[in-house]
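Hi there,

I know you've been waiting on this one. I reran it after we fixed the sequence typo, so this is the corrected version. Both the input and the resulting structure follow.
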Amino acid sequence: MPYYDNLRDYLTALDALGDVMHIHREVDGDLEPGAITRRSYEIRSPAPLFENIRGVAPGFRILGAPAALCSRPDMPYARVALSLGLPAQSTGPAIVNALAATRRVPYIKPVRVEAGHALSQQHVLRGEQATLDRFPIPFAHDHDGGRYANTWGTLIVKTPDGRWVNWSIARVMKVDGKRMVGLMVPSQHIGQIWGEWVALGKPMPYALVQGPAPAISCLSGMPLPAEVDEADFVGALAGEPVKLVKAISVDLDVPASAEIVIEGHVSTERDCLEGPYGEYGGYLGTGSSAQPTFHVETITHREDPIWPLVVAGRPTDESHTVWAIGIAADALSRLQEAGLPITTVWAPEPAAVHWFLAVAPRDWRQRLPGVSSEAFAQRVGEVLFNTDAMLFVPQIYLVDDDIDPTSIDDVVWALATRVHPTGRRAVFEDQPIVRLPQCYREAEYEARRGPKVVFDTLQPEDRHLHASFEQAYPEALRQRILANWPTQTS
């Protein structure tokens, strides 16, 4: 499959699948793009492309739901797969396994191109011309604290000594044409780097990139170990170096084919209120917090730029596809590196990134001689709850491979019938938590500490057969029944 190094070629590929909904009528610049995008998630429509937005220059566009579930039922993960250069028909676990495998190959450093060859710098706005008011930034939800200027863009920052360049996604709210305010979590990589700049008393240079190569957007939302540059990982995934160009006003390199790049500096203080915002758990936000200000100094963009829009909420949106897949790939890599027999890790979309399933093969007892299922669950928790990615995840289920972790029917049936009411779980007390998961008490949120758990749902070695067509009848009988099954026209 081809690797798409720009958003527009990716959109052409989606169009060929019938997975783009072109909206040519005028839509308002306030809530309508957010509301249409949210409904597109809930009914699994093609991705909405808004081509006529009130209040902005003709040609400026918004792409909603850029990496959500595909509208075609035969290839539900096509948007994620195509973004990553994988076949559109790839299953969720196949994507997880491909990302985990990429962790084990040599990474490829990016290359810098000359400014004259960078589509992202076709238009350069400086001074008072560099204002967010030029761009179509709608409200995502009616109750949000403001228009969110970043829901799917890549934030680029680097340490003061230049040793580590980090690409990430974090929500950033527009304050006015020259200021934004962004959620800065100290434990996340961007928060760690901001902390180094704060310690020096210097504002942190940043670039906010809208609409780069789709793989960049996806990988910016996926966890990698600290001190690893996401650009190098994208190169390994693509099999070719990412093309970057020097930013106009800050000492950073940015993707050369991006739609829009916003450059500036981040304040050294938490000096502006951010939020509320509807989040991945599926609930509207109710509070705000003091966060650092992102000052806007220079903006560059392509001709007729496209601004990607994610509207987080009840499953399924990009939080439950891309982010969850990234956490699953990180978890799979770490469990396999620890020598634990896990074939895949998966987060069922309706669980809103609150549940992850670690799937054990039938022969796990032979591969872990003398280890009980309870001890296996304990080891899984010891590995995963020490990782940054699992900061957001309260529950893990250790399951057998006789269920399909991507089938919510299989998952609900297995958990309902295999989770012991009072035992067979490894509880990890006093773990670090953040406010984004919805399941903790207020006192736990305030303390930033709470429990996490791995449920042991593994069956005995002599597994129970399913009372199903597949397992409850002889093979010859099943084949005869299938061969003679009446068609709809019979």
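Quick highlight: DSSP finds 13 helices and 23 strands in the chain.

Best,
R. S.
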